[in-house]
Amino acid sequence: MVSSVNTNAGALIALQNLNSTSKQLATVQGRINTGLKVAGAKDNGAIFAIAQNLRSDVAGLNAVKGSLDRGISAVDVAVAAGESISDLLIQMKEKAVAASDSGLDSASRTALQSDFEALRDQITTIVTNAEFNGTNLIKNSGDAVTAIVNDKGTQTITVAAQDLSLTGTTISIATTTTFTTATTAASAVTLLESSISAVNSALATLGTGSKKLDAQRTFVNKLSDVIDVGIGNLVDADLAKESARLQSLQVKQQLGIQALSIANQAPSTVLALFR
Asked: What is the pTM of this model?
């Protein structure tokens, strides 16, 4: 074996092994710190590219959730308002039926008329305020709700507007509908029965639209969760495994330092030849 004070081959080999161990240790520490085995393109270019594409899909689905949430809220407000209008029409019918009694005295009919008109005007108030985020599905020339349903924004679900105003075609009574006699009260009853039926039909349409949006929202939530799990399977680190590797590499690093120290002492044995 050649001994040299200029070149210490043993020390060079020990240093190479120590550097390799330190590099592995840094990698393991990075995985433990971030929780990721693929934190960037340098770790694994192909897997990182796949994960980024999936993250793009999830980001698109988050936008879909927001669109669906806004749509559901707008439709639910319209449904709540429509139900209130249906209740008001039923109360108005009760007043009109009572007023259609020919044996009713004038004072009683006038009181019923006053209640009827107050209920009628309340419909207009409800329609005017049945708005969410600037969208009103039940006003005259109301706004349809359109929600995106895929991460590319190319597919949508639309819930058509339902005109429940007193100036529309769904409700037969008008802003001036009232009664002063038993005959006009009976006529109002006919209009109200038609209106109640039409409003309930409009409510069924809105309810179906809301249910469709809810179903899509549930599906998007599940799809987003599945993709998130898939991304995790690709890039997440096994922390139990990495913890075991960390301890192993720390021991290996200490041994490498000792080996390098021993190798560095080798040239000093040459001095014994000169004693």
From this structure: 0.78
